[in-house]
Amino acid sequence: MIGLMKRIDDIARAEKATRITGVSVWLGAFSHMSAEHFTEHFEQAAAGTIAEGATLDIAVSDDTAHANAQDILLESVEVET
Ligand SMILES: [Zn+2]
């Protein structure tokens, strides 16, 4: 989660964002994260940052054979500049 928030922050900085409005993630089948649990963690991590209130688009994979089945992938970040 810390790594993910860092990457979101890096993208926001690179795009000189004033606000992060949306975040899309993909949760691997073995990532041990449900959409609800991810949302909880994201909201905690984003509180008081420019990502607070961002809309989450969460895809939950059930493909246990996927090469990234253990991972949480950041698919896209939408920002306001
Ligand atoms: Zn947790």
Describe, in plain words, how this protein is organized in 3D:
With 81 residues, this protein is α+β, with helices and mostly antiparallel strands. Helices cover 31% and strands 30% of the residues. It contains two helices and three strands, in the order H-E-H-E-E. A three-stranded mixed β-sheet has the order 2-1-3, covered by helices on one side. The model has no long low-confidence stretch (mean pLDDT 95). Zinc ion (ZN) binds next to helix 2.
How many helices? The count is: 2
Mean pLDDT: 95
Helical/strand content category: alpha+beta
Number of strands: 3
Bound molecules: zinc ion
Order of helices and strands: HEHEE
The order of strands across the largest sheet is: 2-1-3
Notable features of this structure?
81 residues; alpha+beta; binds zinc ion; 2 helices; elongated; three-stranded mixed β-sheet
Summarize the model shown.
This protein is α+β, with helices and mostly antiparallel strands and 81 residues long. Helix content is 31%, strand content 30%.
What secondary-structure arrangement, pairings included, does this model have?
Elements: H1 2-14, E1 19-27, H2 35-46, E2 55-60, E3 72-80
Parallel strand pairs: 1-2
Antiparallel strand pairs: 1-3
This protein binds zinc ion.
